[in-house]
Write a structure and sequence with these properties.
Shape: globular
Strand content: 25-35%
Distance between the termini: 25 Å
Number of helices: 5
Radius of gyration: 19 Å
Order of helices and strands: EHEEHEEHEHEEHEE
Structural class: alpha+beta
Length: 215
C-alpha cells in the first residue's frame, strides 16, 4: 500500500519554510525506522538557503497500511517549532506551526487526470541491471501540459507498470499543489485569528538544533 504525505508551511512567513526544511528529514527518518519505504516526490524551495515551502513524500507499506496508519497517528496535523527566528533574529515570535497532511490515495487521485492533458514519452531505464536494462526504453516520462509538472518513473521492468507509477506520482504533485493552496488560505485565517491549535501539536521541536521535545 502507498500513501502520500504533504508537509507545508503554506505561504506564511519565511520561518515556516525553515521549519519544513528540517521537519521533512525527521519525518522521513521515522518512516524508515518504522520499516516503510519513503521517497521524496516533490520539494518546493523556500525563499532562502536551507528553506523549503513544502515537501511531498510517498510512503510504501508492505502490509495493508497498518504501519502507515500507526506512523501518521503521531504526525498528521500540526507540528510546532519553538525558537527564535533564524532569518529575522529581532522577530518577537517564538512559536511556529506547519501542517502535516495525508493526501488522497492513488485510486482517488488518478481519476482526476485527463489523458488529453498528458504528454508521455519513453526513456531508457538507467541504473543497475546491466546493459540489458539500459537498452530497453521501459521508463516513462510524463508531463502535465496545463501545469508544466513532469515526473519520470523507472522503478519497474515493465513499461505498463511505470506508466501507472508515473500517473500516480503526477497526481500526487497536483494534489499537493492544491493542498498547499488550501493550506495558505487556512494559514491566513489562523494568523488573523490566532487560532492554530496551539495546545494540540502532534510533534514539537525546539531550538536551533531542532531537537524533538514531544512526539
Amino acid at each position: 500500500m502507498k500513501a502520500w504525505v504533504l508537509i507545508s508551511g503554506g505561504h506564511g512567513p519565511p520561518e515556516l519554510a525553515w521549519v519544513v526544511h528540517r521537519l521533512g528529514p525527521a519525518f522521513a527518518a521515522e518512516a524508515v525506522a518504522h520499516g516503510l519505504g519513503c521517497h521524496e516526490l516533490l520539494r518546493a524551495h523556500g525563499p532562502a538557503p536551507e528553506t523549503t515551502w513544502s515537501l511531498v513524500y510517498e510512503l510504501e507499506d508492505m502490509s495493508e497500511g497498518e504501519v502507515i496508519a500507526a506512523l501518521l497517528r503521531g504526525w498528521e496535523g500540526t507540528a510546532q517549532w519553538i525558537g527564535r527566528s533564524p532569518l529575522r533574529p529581532e522577530h518577537r515570535r517564538r512559536n511556529w506551526f506547519v501542517k502535516v497532511t495525508r493526501l488522497p490515495v492513488e485510486a482517488e487521485a488518478t481519476t482526476g487526470l485527463r489523458e488529453a492533458d498528458l504528454e508521455e514519452s519513453a526513456v531508457r531505464s538507467g541504473g543497475s541491471g546491466g546493459q540489458n536494462v539500459n537498452k530497453r526504453s521501459t521508463a516513462v516520462r510524463l508531463r502535465h501540459k496545463p501545469s508544466g509538472l513532469e515526473v519520470v518513473a523507472r522503478d519497474e521492468r515493465s513499461q505498463a507498470q511505470n506508466r501507472r507509477i508515473a500517473r500516480e506520482r503526477l497526481a500526487a504533485l497536483l494534489l499537493a499543489g492544491a493542498a498547499a493552496q488550501r493550506g495558505a488560505a487556512e494559514r491566513a485565517r489562523w494568523d488573523e485569528h490566532n487560532a492554530i491549535e496551539r495546545g494540540n501539536a502532534r510533534q514539537v521541536f525546539r531550538g536551533p538544533e531542532f531537537a524533538r521535545v514531544r512526539a
